[in-house]
Structures are given as C-alpha cells and as structure tokens.
Amino acid sequence: MASVTPTPGIHHVTCIAGNPQRNMDFWVKTLGLRLVKRSINQDDPGTYHFFFADAEGTPGTSMTFFPWEDLSQGTVGSGQVSRTAFRVPEGSLDYWEDRLDEYGVEYDERVDRFGESVLPLCDPDGLPIELVEVEVPDDDPTVPWTEFVPAEHAIRGFHSVTLWLANPDATMDLLETMGLEKAATEESPGDTPGDERTRFAAAGPVGSYVDVLPTVKGGRPGHGTVHHVAFQTPTDEDQSAMRSAVQREGLRPTTQIDRHWFRSVYFREHNGVLFELATSEPGYDSDEPLDDLGGRLVLPGDFEDRREQIEAQLPDVTVPRAEAAESVEPAESEADD
C-alpha cells in the first residue's frame, strides 16, 4: 500500500459568478489580485474561466470563477464551502476597511477566531469571503501583486475554507486521511450559538486550514457559491496515492483529468462537498510568459482549433489596469449592472 504524502493545503477554490466584467473588476481592482489566466470552462467552453492569484500564480493563491450569467442566485448551506478566507499581513485590516469604504463594498464587524482578527465581506455576487490578519514570514512562497494594492497590505494567498456539514464526523476523518491534523476547537461567534468550529491544519505555509462547522441549513448552487475546493497533491505520485486513500474511504474519485495547468482528480466527500486534488505543475506560466499572464484568452489543447467559434460566444471583457483606474471614480466603477 503506497504511503500518502500529506497535502500541503489548498491549491485553488473555484466559484460561480454572474456578470464577468463585474467579477473581474472586483477581484482585480478592488481586492488587488492578478488575473493570471483568462480561459474557458473546459466542460462548458461557452463560459469563461478566470483565475485570480498572486503575482506568479503560486499554488495556494488562485481564486477561480465560472461566470455563468444565466444561473440564479445561489444559497450557501450544508454540503458547501461556506467561507473562503485570505491571508493579509498583520495590521492590514484598517487599510482594507478604508479601501472597501472607498469602493462602496459593505463588510461586517471584525471577529476574533482562534486568536486571529477576521474581516468578513461578500463579493458583488454575494460570495462570502474573509480577510485574516497573519504574520507573513520572510520566506513566504507567495509574491504580492502590487498594481492596485501595496505589498504591505496585499492578499497573500489562502488562509482557509470553512465547510458547512450536516454530519461532520466522516469528513473530519477524511481530512485526517488527507494529512490534515485537528488543531483546535472553539465556539463559533457569528454562527449558530453553541456550534463548535473545528480547525484542521495542513503542513504547508499557504491555505493551511480547513474549518468544519455543523449545520443542516439548506443551500443550492448558483451565483455567490463555491463550486469546488482543490487541495495540493504536488506530484502525480502524490496524487495517485491520495486517490487510492480516498477510494479506501469509500468514495469514488475520478481518473486523472488534464486541466492544462495542473492535473486533477475530483470526488464528492461524505457530505457532498466537491473536492479536487491538483498537481503543482505545469503551472500558469507554462503557456504564457510570466510578465504576460492573463493577457490573452488561452484555449488549451484542441480548443485552440475552435477559437473563432468560442470567441464569438464570449462577451467582451476589459482587464483593469492601474493607469486607467486613476480617472475612474471607485463607486461608479463598481456599480452593479
């Protein structure tokens, strides 16, 4: 039986959005993430797939979106990733509150969670996200992108995801099988009184935490919800061993699927959350120079042969640039369509 290399943590999180331009404006201009890949949903090539990350698309930093405009608003509930949290350097939340005020983005009061200060907010589609102050070490693997937000305040990859689960025990066992360790438990402020939040920690420096909260609240997919969360299995060997371990848990992972910038295995965990295992290579700079990431529509594999047809189905979008933003009032630039 092959030994399982523990996952270092979250690789990426993929979500469902509505209007693609509004989605891009918020994640690039307001939150200051770099568009590292502009592509298509490989299972639905008439839909964009946007990848927002740090300056180099480091594993553990990419928030990705399918902007399915025709879908209705979703509801966060049991069997979903309910919150996606990002790391920001210690002392940054004052800056972020001022920035969100400037751009007309509402946010909730800060909460203390496991000794860390957390700022909850939502993106324009209602997706719940959080900014968490952390001490970023000098050797941190993330590279801040500074076109819109200065380095001392820039988002530095994922902090955690929170899973809302009806029956958490089996999922918590699975997380331990994947190499995360139970780190702490506390009553969860802001959630149902009496509920306990259990934190699991991976060994890597970015996207290290998965929080589990029990809930039977119903949800449905749609705008403002998470489609899936991907965990790092850096090599093909790591991924194969993890896939076998998942099978031994009674789950049904797919065979490996080539996603062009990484190779993937998918499965639904015991409570229905869609998990992905993703390799580190070949990476987002495998088909574009690092300086030009996100600069063009990339069509992987055989999709390139259908470029004219695919481009005709996609709405035009403009990638925000700092020099262009100087002449635009923030509140106007973020207005809903």
Automatic annotation (TrEMBL):
The region annotated as signal peptide is: none
User: Domain VOC: where?
Assistant: 9-134, 157-280
Concerning SUPFAM superfamilies, the annotation shows: Glyoxalase/Bleomycin resistance protein/Dihydroxybiphenyl dioxygenase
Instruction: List the CDD domains hit by this protein, alphabetically.
Output: PcpA_N_like
For region Disordered, the annotated ranges are 311-337
- Show the InterPro entries listed in the entry: Extradiol_RC_dioxygenase, Glyas_Bleomycin-R_OHBP_Dase, Glyas_Fos-R_dOase_dom, VOC_core
User: Low complexity compositional bias: what residue ranges?
Assistant: 319-328
Name of this chain's protein:
Glyoxalase family protein
